[in-house]
Amino acid sequence: MTIPLLNYPSSSQNQRVIGYEVPGDEQPMIYSCENLLSPSEMDNLIMAAYRQIFNEQQMTLSSRQVYLESQLRSGQITVRDFIRGLATSDVFRTRNYDSNNNYRFVQMCVQRILGREVYNEREKFSWSIVLATKGLKGFIDDLLNSEEYINNFGYDTVPFQQRRVLPQRTQGDLPFARMARYDEYYRDKLPKTSIYGQFAAFDWSRFVREADWKNVAGVIMLFAVITIFTLLIGYGLNPIG
Fold first, then answer.
1. Helix 39-54 and helix 79-87: axis angle, to 10°?
2. Sign (positive/negative) of CA torsion 185, 159, 89, 119?
3. What distance in Å separates the CA atoms of residue 180 and residue 23, rounded to the nearest whole number?
């Protein structure tokens, strides 16, 4: 018997009210494919989806779901289906579900999929029951099928953090994920959604520093043997004199 979802009151309705204010830098960038997008615009949308679901800290090459990207580009799936695929992928399960308890995982998914913080502990417990009874896929499906998600993002918009302007503060909520990355180690692991971004300029100093010289020497020796063998065959077929 499935345990019913608990009723929980919303502690704040501010994120559901359209604010009367001049837009600024803190306003979220909205990515949607309601209109036909150019290849570069689709690349930006896909990157925004990765950033929303995996956050900056988990946006690595191993997180990339190439098959889902191909389906989205060809129009076989919607942005909502793409979000579902990312949130139910093995890499998302390993890095988020397997490494957290149910309460923390529920909070993360509400932030990343519904774009807001959990209202209160009762909501966190309620979604945790759904996660425990329906499993990861059923829990993600319930979030994506909820009236809140459909009303805010529909089928073609990448989820984003909902703006909440509280009377006690002059600014809205800070981003849920805040961790700067500075060195090239992390930049080299970012997923490259565009085919043109998969090839970096050759850097000789980096090649010398990171190359596996044992394998390089083997390739050079193999190339030398093939070259000498080719020259000997050519000389045998066309001897001098």
1. 40
2. positive
3. 25
**Residue at token pair 């209202």:** 119
Contacts of 66 (CB under 8 A, 6+ apart): none
Q: What is the pLDDT of residue 105?
A: 94
Residue 186 has pLDDT above 70, yes or no: no
Nearest CA to 195 out of 37, 46, 16 is that of: 46
- 188-232 tens-digit pLDDT: 655 555 544 444 455 666 656 666 667 777 778 888 888 887 777
Written as six digits, the tokens of 219 are 């390739």
Q: What is the mean pLDDT of residues 32-42?
A: 83
What pLDDT does 128 receive?
93
Task: Please say whether the beta carbons of 55 and 177 come within 8 A.
Answer: yes
Which tokens is 81 given? 């289906």
Q: Is 216 exposed, middle or buried (0-12, 13-18, 19+ CB in 10 A)?
A: exposed
Query: 82-112: buried (b, 16+ CB within 10 Å) or exposed (e) per residue?
Result: bbbbbbbbeebeebbbeeeebeebbbbbbbb
| Of the ranges 21-25, 54-58, 115-119, 155-159, the best mean pLDDT one | 155-159
15, exposed or middle or buried, with CB in 10 Å at 0-12, 13-18, 19+? buried
